Automatic annotation (TrEMBL):
Its EC number is 2.6.1.16. The active site is at residue 361. It comes from Cyclonatronum proteinivorum. Keywords: Aminotransferase, Cytoplasm, Glutamine amidotransferase, Repeat, Transferase. The lineage of its organism: Bacteria, Pseudomonadati, Balneolota, Balneolia, Balneolales. One of its GO terms (molecular function) is glutamine-fructose-6-phosphate transaminase (isomerizing) activity. This is Glutamine--fructose-6-phosphate aminotransferase [isomerizing]. It catalyses: D-fructose 6-phosphate + L-glutamine = D-glucosamine 6-phosphate + L-glutamate.
């Protein structure tokens, strides 16, 4: 049932070009420059006119929510807040009928996320869900929602669910941008086209497996890892660090790159691998300074960058490149080498990849 792969996680990493395509099928209509999200069509007006959108989730789904915040704010100019579902509840949250809550959950059973759904509903907000498991509790208790259609995810560490969640959020952001008239036709056409090309680009990244493996072999016994990213690649840094912690038990931290000099820089020495997410975008000059700062302290820079980003490739000890895409979509590509890296490191460390210690696939206690 693992389709010839040694672990479900590896199978699920490999499936992503297909699962992203499945997630977009019938929804991303390239020839009409249109997004069709049937699951929320009855409530789209209320969503479009909402005062703000509150996204609540846990773990990897929360990271997808953070990417969604960049996407929706940028394309739809809508105010978005992202909350840990658990923390949302403890704060006697300020949420009203004018707000929309969007929860994200692969399993649809996460207790804290479910509690956030109930809290928001009791305050009169419209509550939408992005779930993978059809008919799950969260899918049933939300007012409307969009399934990710990633298929069953068995490995405890979430991979294909994450890329599908980001895909749904990107489609929502485009739809909202069009409906709120914040996105002109040319720009929406360019991002819709870029989305349609993502599955092939993900497949291309899978051909870099051996390159990532060589890095994994070298750093499999590092005690710590630092992940740095800016803007929409900041959540990817968090996600990369979480994946490594979960399955290889290596201590890893993800940081917004600019925060490095406010503390974590003290950790950098010749034993510290620093994974730097550096697409060739508006943050590039700043990421290059970060790379230079790490190098000056003899840190080991592993850059995840785009094919065209020669400067970063030249400055970094190691680099894995991903194809170029629309800037806002880079998280869908940069996360893939990080999934492979954590997987291969866990294999070298002989960890139980699909069922890491202390973790469960769905966390149904609060
Ligand atoms: C990460 C992971 C967890 C889940 C979190 C939320 O690999 O598996 O962090 O993402 O427990 O789960 P869902 O999305 O099912 O609500």
């Amino acid at each position: 049932e693992k389709g010839g792969f040694p672990h479900f996680m590896l199978k699920e990493i490999h499936e992503q070009s297909e699962t992203i395509a499945d997630c977009m099928r019938g929804r991303l209509v390239v020839e009409d420059n249109k997004i069709v999200l049937g699951g929320i069509s009855a409530v789209t007006d209320r969503l479009v006119n909402a005062r703000r959108l509150i996204i609540a989730a846990c773990g990897t789904s929360w990271h997808a929510g953070l990417v969604g915040e960049y996407l929706i704010e940028s394309l739809a100019k809508m105010s978005v807040e992202v909350e840990y579902a658990s923390e949302f509840r403890y704060r006697d949250p300020l949420i009203t009928e004018e707000d929309v809550m969007l929860v994200i959950s692969q399993s649809g059973e996460t207790a804290d996320t479910l509690a956030a759904v109930r809290e928001a509903r009791s305050k009169g907000a419209l509550v939408l869900g992005i779930c993978n498991v059809v008919g799950s509790t969260i899918a049933r208790e939300t007012d409307a929602g969009i399934y990710t259609h990633a298929g069953p995810e068995i490995g405890v560490a979430s991979t294909k669910a994450f890329t599908a969640q980001v895909t749904v959020l990107a489609m929502m952001a485009i739809l909202l941008g069009q409906r709120r008239a914040k996105l002109d036709e040319k720009e929406s056409a360019s991002i819709i086209k870029a989305m349609s090309e993502i599955p092939a680009k993900v497949a291309e990244i899978m051909t870099k497996f051996d390159e990532v493996d060589a890095i994994a072999r070298l750093f499999a016994y590092a005690p710590n890892f630092l992940y740095l990213g800016r803007s929409y690649n900041f959540p990817v840094a968090l996600e990369g660090a979480l994946k490594l912690k979960e399955i290889s038990y290596i201590h890893a931290e993800g940081y917004p790159a600019a925060e490095m000099k406010h503390g974590p820089i003290a950790l950098i020495d010749e034993l510290m691998p620093v994974v730097v997410l550096a697409a060739a975008d508006h943050t590039n000059d700043k990421m290059i300074s970060n790379i230079e700062e790490v190098r000056a302290r003899k840190g080991r820079v592993i850059a995840i960058t785009t094919d065209n980003n020669q400067d970063v490739q030249r400055l970094s000890e190691f680099s894995i490149t991903v194809p170029e895409t629309h800037d806002l979509l880079t998280p869908l590509l940069t996360v893939i080498p990080l999934q492979i890296l954590s997987y291969q490191i866990a294999v070298y460390r002989k960890c139980n990849v699909d069922q890491p210690r202390n973790l469960a696939k769905s966390v149904t206690v609060e």
